[in-house]
Amino acid sequence: MQQKELLRMRNEVVLLFYVTAIFAYGVLIMLNLYSNLDDLVGVILVIFLPILAGKILKIKPVAMQWVIIISGNMAIVYLNIVSFSLTNFICFIFYILLITIYHSIKMNTIFSIVSLLEIIVLSYYHRSATESIVQNQYFATFIFVVLLLTIIGWIQSRHLRHYWYRLSEMNLQKKQELLSQEAYLHLFFQHATDCIAVFSLDNRILDVNPAFEEVYGWTREEIVGKSIPLVPPENVLEAEQRYASLLEGKSFKLLETQDMRKDGTVFDVEISLSPLYDGTNKMIAISAISRDISYKKVNEQLLLQSEKLKMAGEIAAGVAHEIRNPMTVISGFVQMMGNEQNANCQAYTEIIQSEIERINLIIGEFLVLSKPHVEQLKVVSLNDVITKISQLFHLEFQKHGITFSLHIVSEDNFILANENQLKQVFINIIKNAIEAIEANATEGEIIVFIAKDAEGLNMVTITDNGVGMSEALVKRIFEPFYTTKSTGTGLGMLITNKIIQEHGGTIAIESKVNYGTTIKIKLPQAENQEVGGV
Which of 167, 285, 299, 496, CA to CA, is 20 to 30 A from 251? Predict the structure, then answer.
């Protein structure tokens, strides 16, 4: 492979010399030093028609070498036939010199002999012109130069060929290394899992890789050469300041921020930005490598939530039992004081008793948090559990004018669960929905759907048209002791989330102020439907 590449390079060098010689020949004609324009046209046709045919047919370098050598020889012979002169004789010297480029002693010897024979034949063909040339003092010099070039060609082929090969091989090696580096860079760009984009200095996209297209939703054809919105509107100013810093030569590594997809959705990214320079250290572009870290943020939230549950459980385990015993004693004495029918104290004892009951409620919720695992699991029908809950709240729905509807899309909605804890989950959610509707002062509606999702999980969707929640409140709803209710403990949704997680499920909340709330609970399907404890 390398030998063929070397030969191809030498063919190109010889062709370059041909073109140079023909150009010089044309200059002589223009300067009226040599007036045979027809000769020049003929030489061009004799040399380049065979070479052009070889290029079109894409013949191999070895065959092209012989086409180039024979075409050059024929062109010189043709030139000396149509116009015999010392100037044309000199072309043989040029020809022998070109043959030495191939570093072949055999080839150099053969074509030197052939050229000398051709000179002799041409001398007899143009005898009168030859006699005038021979009489010229430069003819002997010409013959000497031909022989000298032949000897030089031998020496060069014999002794300098090694160095030529070495330089040529080094050149080929460097070229192959460069091509390999470019190929590796192209493979890295195309197959990198991180999103890669290259921007011009005026913030237009020069190129993106397939990972960028997949994550951001734009195709390469849509955005190359354009400036598109890749950050949410609230982050535009910050992004412009970063770009200005990049143009000053600064870089940003593993910066956590938010970007925007083609459809307008915002997601968390970890991005590295840096300027790109050419060989003269001139800035030519900006590179951006980004990674979608939405899953990382979700995991961080889950970890944080787990830590909160752990903290609440530790508090519950250490405090609940210590408070309950003295509260039982206080409650007993308050009841005794209330039974004495003392008008002066009865109003106060009722308030005290009410607050004691509230403390007992908090202690009860603490005790739920302190339990590390679900106990007494059995196969439970979600349909039956929610039907019972709806019956439990029947009077509450009538009292607040709420329309409740239950839609069971699939019948085999069975899960492995602690039924009492599962009831507590839906009681908490429906109580919150009733309170939200009451706060909205409107005709209430609660809709429950029980169905299977695309992955075969049991999905319960509970929607109300209550007062709704802000995005900030939704983010904090599972925090312990965080509540907007005057009588709330801030533990209800924390307990709900804990129970669902212990049953291998997930809970998601979507809400909008004054429009209501939708809660989606997903729980795994029981492998069998036989009742059994664990």
Answer: 299
